[in-house]
Amino acid sequence: MCHISTEMIDTDTIIALSTPYGCGAIAVVRMSGPQAITFAEQLCGRTLNRQVHYCPIAHLDDLVVISYRAPHSFTGEDVVEFNCHGSIYIQQELQRRLIALGARPARAGEFTQRAFLNGKMDLMQAEAVADIIAAQTQAEAQLALTQLRGGISGELTQLRERLLKLTSLLELELDFADHEDLEFADRSQLHQLADEIEGKLVQLTDSFQTGNAIKNGIPVAIVGQTNAGKSTLLNALVGEERAIVSDVHGTTRDTIEETLVINGILFRFIDTAGLRATDDVVENMGIERSRQAIRKAQIIVYLIDPTSDSPSGTEDIEGEHVIKVYSKADIKTMEGELCISAKLGEIEPLKSRLVAEAGDLQVNGAVISSIRHYEALMKALSAIRQVQAGLQQGLSGELLSEDLQDCLNALGEITGQITSQEVLNNIFSKFCIGK
Description:
Layout: E1 14-17, E2 24-32, H1 36-44, E3 52-57, E4 61-68, E5 79-86, H2 88-101, E6 104-105, H3 110-117, H4 123-134, H5 138-148, H6 151-174, H7 187-206, H8 208-216, E7 218-224, H9 230-238, E8 256-262, E9 265-271, H10 281-296, E10 299-304, E11 322-326, H11 348-357, H12 371-393, H13 397-415, H14 421-428
Parallel strand pairs: 1-6, 7-9, 7-10, 10-11
Antiparallel strand pairs: 1-2, 2-5, 3-4, 4-5, 8-9
């Protein structure tokens, strides 16, 4: 169970607009709290003895009122949802009347925070709610949905519970310190569990690069010599004149970034300064940034001008996924090579290749995308490796127990089994009002 202080749980009844602000066919105003049913009955002038009621409200609107009795609701409290016509006046007047009855406007993320505090979901699942709302691509939505369904947090919770049992036995040994030969915690069993936990933590921390790319866009560096057509390609990809195109060598002095969704995958394209030897101090600074972009990119599009006197290959470009592309196909094509004409907008072969290269980044198994989760996992990984080292050295249960507790605390931070009001406020403040 979560270590939640009773002071964290607010007993006010809260309301908020759950649908986007503005005119529409319908709008939904949600209310949650111990007096939600009472306030709804006072507004409607009737007893809500069924889950769904049709309630005409004088001088306001004909409402469809849906009630959920605690604990069978999203928040775990009594919840009422008012479905009304999407007039802004009706939305605001409905909320005004409910506030007059005693409800108060909800803070950002307060509905989901109450769901967490009332044990309807763990903290990792709660964060996934915000990720689903913010998802812009199929891959991002799938990643958030996997997290919301509790697959990752369920595994971590099970490992933590098993580790907690062994930690408790180690601490029990401290009560019998006079009997040095007593061992309540099986060291071989602890060693096996520590290895299992380390393997899982390594898998999750390694997945962060993939999760981050899915969430923020797969970084794709567009590199090559000057005048190879890099800026023209960026403009063709995003469909607008985003980068300056010129025949003058060294026009691009800094990196330019743009995002694009291709086949449900978010790519973050980085147009870089042309790679060449130059005495220009400012241009050299741009070239150094190009090399930094190459090091950070997960996919590199190496653009080669076939009309150049000295077209180069990919010998100097390092990276796991390098796509060698010949530009200016409207002037000259290269037999058997990937050729495009960004000037004419003929870039579909490159788009298909990008999707293929990104195939390894699809959500297959447990993937994390939150920096908060990643940092906690790294702390847990460091602690469990200390435990493994201690077991190899034959350290006492007292010393092993300290590292085990550090690992338990780090895992508990991820799912919310150990948390603070400050952490919760920081997480839920990023939610939209009404969720």
